[in-house]
Amino acid sequence: MSAKFKSFITDLLSQIDIQIGGSRPWDIQVHDDRLYNRVMTQGSLGLGEAYMDGWWDAGAVDQFLYRVLTGQLQSKIKFDFALAFLAIKGILLNPQRLNVREVGEKHYDIGNDLYKRMLDPRMIYSCGYWRDAETLEEAQEAKLDLICRKIGLKEGMRILDIGSGWGGLLKFAAERYGVSGVGITVSKEQMALANDIRGNLPIETRLMDYMELDGHFDRIVSVGMFEHVGFKNYNSYFSKVHDLLPDDGLFLLHSIGGSLTRSSGEPWLEKYIFPNGMLPSPRQVTGAVEGKLIMEDWHNFGADYDRTLMVWHERFEAAWPELKDRYGERFYRMWRYYLLMCAAAFRARWVHLWQIVYSKDGLKGGYVSIR
Q: Residues 340, 81, 280, 245: is their CA dihedral positive or negative?
């Protein structure tokens, strides 16, 4: 069967100008012929695990995966068992609420040393805004300022950051706009570092689940956290935001999104990078928010994530000699596959980056879109 699978995959790859054993950056080098059977029976999960195991390489993994995605090769694999299992799991269960801190423990807590070397000095782990930026630092500062301007931050306001990471947005907003604020995260490492570097600013980061929140905040933001909520919980998520906002409040949701409605995430990413992660679709978002908040603005700059991820990858590669003794070779191949796989997906416009601004009852006179 493996010979038949090899012939089938070789033919598929040739249709999108990928050669097995070729010399171009996007050509694939196969080191173990078991790869073909693994891909045919396990789909994208098998492809990613085979890379981790050293069964194949490419000079530019992102370019190889970009061609695979734009060539729609995944549709030629008739049945993806791993994807089907996740879809059924997402429908029958509510995995995001079974262990709300799992993604914090397995992803965000793996080591601040890794993230410090890969990210910008503010440790912003989300898409930069590259319209007028030349460096990662400039792109992240531009993104933070864009968020603050979109929600009309003014001195003296109190803000809430749902999924606040290492506190970079809160610190930026307090320094530049004179606000106070609270951030929440499910990562112990993020909370500890965020509180350690806040100085005397009137901000704090708490280790807690978003459903435990109460009180009122003038403005609410959520950057790169909604991908962990799960479609079954979108209604309760937006209801919570509604309850936390005053009548004249604004909420900005910054989230990766997908074009198609699904009940689960991508199998390899779900297993190795973001447990129980899934991308919302426009239909899922608008359906869940209906009757709770008014959508004032929807901005898609997902193409900027490709550039952000490639810079992260470059910095990760440069820092690897300092990190390898702690993390090991298999982690290295896993992490670089994660970064390059995601870059390819954004480059192919398979996935997007949305910033959506909501008001509670609709702004009187309308909202002026800010770019």
A: negative
pLDDT confidence band for 82 (50 / 70 / 90): low
Q: Cβ neighbours of residue 62 under 8 Å, at least 6 residues apart?
A: 310, 313, 340, 341, 343, 344, 347
Euclidean distance between CA atoms 91 and 166, whole angstroms: 32
How far is Cα 184 from Cα 304, in angstroms, rounded to an integer? 26
Encode pLDDT of 342-366 as tens digits: 999 999 999 999 999 999 999 999 9
- Cα(248)–Cα(217) distance, rounded to whole angstroms? 10
Where residue 84 falls (left for φ over 0; alpha for ψ -120 to 50; beta otherwise) is alpha
pLDDT digits (tens, 9 = 90+) for 212-222: 999 999 999 99
What pLDDT does 2 receive?
A: 75
Annotated active-site residue 148? The verdict is: no
End-to-end CA distance of the chain: 54
Element (H, E) at 256: strand 250-258
b/e sequence 72-88, b meaning 16+ C-beta within 10 Å: ebeeebeebebbeebbe
Does residue 150 contact residue 370 with C-beta atoms inside 8 Å?
Answer: yes
Question: How do strand 203-207 and strand 219-223 relate by DSSP bridges?
Answer: unpaired
Give the active site residue among 160, 173, 342, 353: 342
Banded pLDDT at 85 (limits 50, 70, 90)? low
Residue pair 323/113 in contact by the 8 Å Cβ criterion? yes
Closest to 113 in 3D by CA, of 305, 320, 310, 309:
320
Q: How confident is the model at residue 3 (pLDDT cuts 50, 70, 90)?
A: confident
DSSP-assigned letter for residue 104: I
Quote the CA–CA distance of 153 and 191 in Å, as a whole number: 24
CA angle 146, 147, 148 (to 5 degrees): 95
Question: What are the tokens at 363?
Answer: 């702004």
Could you report the per-residue pLDDT of 104-134, keeping only the tens digit for each? 999 999 999 999 999 999 999 999 999 999 9
CB atoms under 10 Å from CB of 195, counted, come to: 16
